[in-house]
Each structure stands twice: as C-alpha cells, then as structure tokens.
Amino acid sequence: MVLGGGPAGENIVDRTRAAGLTTALVESELVGGECSYWACIPSKALLRPVLARADARRVPGLAGAVGGALDAEAVFAHRDYWTGNWKDDGQIDWLDSIGAHLYRGHGRLYGTRKVAVTSPEGDHHVLTARHAVVIATGTRAVIPELPGIAGARPWTSREATSARQAPERLLIVGGSVVAAEMATAWQALGTRVTVLVRGSGLLPRMEPFAGELVAEALREAGAEIRTDVAVEAVVRDGATGPVTVVLEGGETVEGDELLMATGRAPRTDDIGLDTVGLTPGDWIGVDDSCRVPGHDWLYAVGDVNHRALLTHQGKYQARIAGAVIAARAAGEEPADTGRWGAHTATADTAALPQAVFTDPEAAAVGLSLAEAQKAGHRVRAVDYDLGKVSGAGLYADPYPGRARMVVDLDREVLLGATFVGPGAAELLHAATIAVAGEVPISRLWHAVPAFPTVSEIWLRLLEAYRG
C-alpha cells in the first residue's frame, strides 16, 4: 500500500510490482505528484528557453540574432505540454500496464497495516496490506503567518510555475532554490522582479560563491536582490490590486504578485499518524532502509521523511525501500546493509547531488567546505575560475563561473564539489560518481577529460591540488 503518487510513490509501486507483490496506490490529486505538475518539470520547462537564450547571447556571431524578447505564449505552451496540461492520463496508463491498483481519494492510516480511503464521491474503503504501507505524501509550501497574508493571496511554487501570464512586477520573499529559479524565469519573461531575503544571500545551503554569482547575474538582468531584510506585514489593494510588503522598520515595497518561497512542511496533518502512535503534522523519521522505527511494516520515502527534499533522492530512497520490502516479503532479512549496500540509503548524507537551473547554473554534491569542517574532517578546498578553462571559454564568452572541490586530506578522496556556470549542471554526475565511489585523488588523475570541454575543470582542480 502506497500513500502518495509522486515520483517516490511511483518508484515504490514499480519496484514492488517488479518483485511480484500486489500493490495499491492512493492519490488525492494527480498521479505524478508535485514534481510533475507544479515543481521540477514545469519550472525547468519555463527555464530552458531562458537559459538557452542566455547561452546563445554569450556566443560571438550568434548573440545579435537572439537579442529579442522571449515568446511568452510559446514558453507557456511548452510548459503545458510537459505537464500533460495538468492531466495524469499517461501516468494512469503506466499504472495499468504494470498491474498496479489505483485508488483516487484521501488516504489515512487506520491502524496497523490498514489504510482508509475516501473517494471524491464520498465512498469509503478500508484496505489491508499484507506486507507494508509506504507513506510518500511529500510536502507543501509554507506561508508564514503575517498580518494581511491571507487577504494578499500570495503565490506559492504552484502558482509561480503554472501562471499563464507574466505579472508586471513580482515580489519574491525567500532566498531558496524556488526563489532563485523563479526570479530567473520571470525576469526573463518580462517581469520586474524584486527578491527579499532574510539572510545574507541566495542559495544558503550551497557554497557562498554560488549564491553570490547567481545574485550578480540576476542584478545584471534587471532584478533587485535585497538581503538582510525581514517582512512584517502584507497588504493587497482590493481583489486584484497591487500587493504591498511592509519591511521591518516600516519601509514598503510594491508589486503586482507576491511569491512566498519560504520553505516546505510535510503533508502529514491528516493521514492518520495518530492511529499508529505518531504525531500528525510532523516529519516522519526513518532508518537507513526508510523504515519507521518501531513499526516493522511502515516506511516513509521522499520529502516526507526530511532526509533530502529532492525528487531524485526520493526516487533513490524508493529503490532502496522497495528492495527491502521485497526481501522481507520473501521471508528474508535484508543482508546488504553496509555503508553503500543495496538496502541502505547512504547517498542521502554522503553524496547528495543538487542542480539549480539559474543563469548561471549552480550544481553541488556532498559536503560544502563549512559542512565538512563542522563534521570534523581535516579538509582542503581547491577553487578554480571555470572561465579560465579552454572548453568553457569556447562554450561561452564570457563564461561566468567557479568550481570548488573539498578534499579529505586523511583519505585523499572528495567529500564534495560545487560548480557554478553556464551548463554546469552537466558536470554534476561525474562529481557524484567521484564522491559516492570514494575515488582516490591518485586515481582521478587517470580520468582524462576530453579537450576542449568544460569538464577539463577536473584537470585544473587536480593540478591546483597538487600545486
């Protein structure tokens, strides 16, 4: 039994069906979840033409040919295509093809191994799992409780990725990935963007230079980025009038729409956690096999367990949990539970990759320098200007970017790597392999990057490390 049909839930269904188990999926909205309709897919569909145009404008001989505005209607149509026009017919066809059962409606735990489902028509079913129940209900956007916020009708990431016209002025509160990506998209679509950040900069979970380079590019594009500011209240003028944000100290900022990009909370308020001794509204703690401690039949995968709020990590956890459930269903205890075993979600903490599709792109895996130092590792950070790599200079002129690798000096392996620059997300998987594989620096010397590619950055980082 799987509660939640986003990417993590779908992967659990796929793995358990492949193992020969009968599997039921309960979904209250669209099969495919937040990622498919209101997050990863629509946001990247909006951003792809933005980044392609930015790259083209850095190529001599081509820049002048792409100087005009984006065709917003074509961009929105491209986005709509990739979301299936917010219909999940294709996902339903896939579920049918593998023989999984779909129950549309709101699902709640109903005690041990039981799930109660209330359909949109009001029908009520109580289903019993023979082996396992998996919670994959994901997260929702958090809107802070501010005076006037309800009447202001702010955007969350859902509205920001599904809007059908560009507002003249957009205020964005927050410095997260959502804030940075949506600022990039809407500024390029003709909106005047103002980003209000409580902290010192954008992308606070990455190396500081990542947020600095992204903020610099946004400012050059015309956006206003304000840091170290706090929002005290919000006021909207009438039903469709402008929105005014009141900052600490009384200063006001006005826009036509307001996007609150201020974090995520688990969708666990009304899924029956109390019926199995857990607290509604909380994140669901799990072990490294994604099983909930004290409940040998209950698992939680994806955002809801708070290990890593990323689609690809939720799918990874689902593959791990699916293998564990299949083994236990066959009467076996999972045996491959070592640090990088098939039944252990080690990558959540040791080799977590993330790509941010801003201009320039920012991509990172593993530990930042600050995180590695905090964890007690003896480390060295090696930095290099990506624009000085021949392949990067041919890719874009100028090429704004920087790279860093964090080396464990005791073992001489990589603990983390960060790349910022046009197309830098495509450098990420090589770094992920190096970190997850704990490839010695001495062996990386023999992984020769093709010339002239941007991946030559690896050679430059290694040369800088050797000195």
UniProtKB/TrEMBL annotation:
Domain FAD/NAD(P)-binding: 1-313
Pfam families named among the record's database cross-references: Pyr_redox_2, Pyr_redox_dim
Keyword Flavoprotein attributed: yes
Database matches in InterPro entries: Class-I_Pyr_Nuc-Dis_Oxidored, FAD/NAD-bd_sf, FAD/NAD-binding_dom, FAD/NAD-linked_Rdtase_dimer_sf, Pyr_nuc-diS_OxRdtase, Pyr_nucl-diS_OxRdtase_dimer
Sorted UniProt keywords: FAD, Flavoprotein, NAD
Cofactor: FAD
Entry keyword annotation includes NAD: yes
Domain annotation Pyridine nucleotide-disulphide oxidoreductase dimerisation: ranges: 353-458
UniProt record similarity statement: Belongs to the class-I pyridine nucleotide-disulfide oxidoreductase family.
Protein name: Oxidoreductase
Record organism: Streptomyces cirratus
